[in-house]
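Hello K.,

You asked for the raw outputs rather than the summary table, so here they are, unedited. I folded two proteins back to back in the same session to keep the settings identical. This is the first:
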Amino acid sequence: MSNRRSFLKKSIAGVALLGAAPLVGEPLVAGTSESNAVKPKAAKAVNPFQLGMAGFTFVNFDLETTLKTLKSLDVHYLCIKDFHLPFKSTDEEIKAFHEKCASYGVTGYAVGPIYMKTKEEVDRGFEYAKRVGVKLIVGVPGYDLLPYVDEKVKAYDFHYAIHLHGPDIKEYPDAKDAWEHTKDLDPRMGMCLDIGHDLRNGCDPVADLKKYHTRVFDMHIKDVTDSTKAGRGIEIGRGKIDFPALVKMMRKINYTGKCSLEYEKDMKDPFLGIAESIGYFKAVSDYA
């Protein structure tokens, strides 16, 4: 909360200053000196990040509602879930899906998370991604399946990002665990760094991004109320994650993947929370 308060106080102070001061370029008032004149406002930082949406955010809503929401928020990337595009979709249905996304200015950039407990489910997931036309799978394979997934990554030339799940399930609770299970595999094997679940497992997502960034291919951005299993989803900026520090680290390591909001509070009526979260992240990304 302190980060949010500090950020908002600076924003309000900046607005107040602009309202009270003369515009840059106005003549100096008699009796003032150059040192007292209003200096040009520093240019905001260039925002290189590609903001997206994790499809799970809209588990209770159809594709049309999802795309309308993304368009209204100026968000252009979607990680595709199978409830919007089923595994058994025909080529014609996949084409229609992409055309509908494009009509709203949205690109489906990955599929998942896809849970994989058997080799047959691994096969299905890779074939699905190939037919959908993406090169990134966000997946959750059993530990015993990792050698087989590694073979598939080589055969398909895909990136495979393992989704973190915090303390809720034993497999891949945090970034360190995903790193330990992929560091000796193909370099296209890595993780989807879910910063909320990483924090809920007692880890520091900013430090983990720095430490493991060579294997971070996707990020699920969210905020949570606590750095324990009791932590629950909340609007970005209201919880425990230091987003200015996160954005600075993303710049430092030159992160080029997507940053997809996965909003898990009020999932049957998430729209105000989604808008607040996107707005806060965009503001921090522009100025941090």
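The second followed immediately with the same parameters:
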Amino acid sequence: MSAPARRSNGGRRPAPRRTLKKSFPKNGLALSLFGSHHSHLARIESALDVVIHARGNEVTIAGDTAAVDNAGDVLDGLYAKLEKGQDVDHADVDAMLRFSAAPGRDRREVDAGVSIRNRVVTARTPTQKDYLSAIDAAELVFGEGPAGTGKTYLAVAKAVERLVRGDVERIILSRPAVEAGEQLGFLPGDMREKVDPYLRPLYDALYDMMPAPQVVKRLESGEIEVAPLAFMRGRTLANAFVILDEAQNTTAVQMKMFLTRLGENSSMVITGDLSQVDLPRGIRSGLRDAIEALGDVDGIRFVRFSESDVVRHPLVGKIVRAYSKLEDIRGTGAKYEVDDHARDAKEK
């Protein structure tokens, strides 16, 4: 009689398993850590394929050794946030899970963020952390990638942080009003009423960072300016934090014009998504041109976001991935190198 067939695991040894027990000193914080009806623990279980049992302020984690260690680090990181007086929600759990899964990353890096008075806006993915670090290190930063990755939101947070701290005198937020070809005369209302619909996402980010009365006051005083790209021509933007959003919809001429507005003691962040270019057929995106032309210029940083950095509703990430697959099949989509190592390897 032949020996019974064994289930194949690809010739690999089974992953070692272990059990880890952890306790958290403060019962109140432990309850917040576990989440309502232990929802945070369930989220960690699902993501890491571990089993977590909680009793009082103690947990027991069982599963593959690496996954158990990751789960323990995630819980430690979340508990550290709670000890600092910060709240923990599902988005924070997901952020800590992303950091724990990134090779060579320390889960404590999730603390990297932006401080605005009594509020802290933290990085929720390793790429977001790199983006914030790039904005601190360079005067001109390009952030390119799909919708929902926090490119504009984090840039506005940095701008508000520097304005409140007194590092800059004003914030300038701009977008190309490409849907109307920057010819807005047919729309009703005065000029501000004509362009505001195209700039609404920038206003939304501002109101999320600051109390509404402060935003209104600073808009009236000129400390914060929100304007379409066409209004930037001929200006020198000094002592300012400048953001150009939806930059994929600029032409090459517009992009060059905007980049050359950078003045003394100013920082500039350019954000966009080359998979969502709305320019007329045959017109090349100014964002693509800038990335290709400025890739080797010292003092400029490029940060590329991917589908894994989407931090909106979980369905958004799935939608972005689905469209990316379709574009790959059709041979369309925005493919180019912005990473220094990839560019160097290509040149060699």
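Confidence is low (pLDDT under 50) at residues 1-8, 180-185, 334-348.

Happy to rerun anything if the numbers look odd on your end.

Regards,
P.
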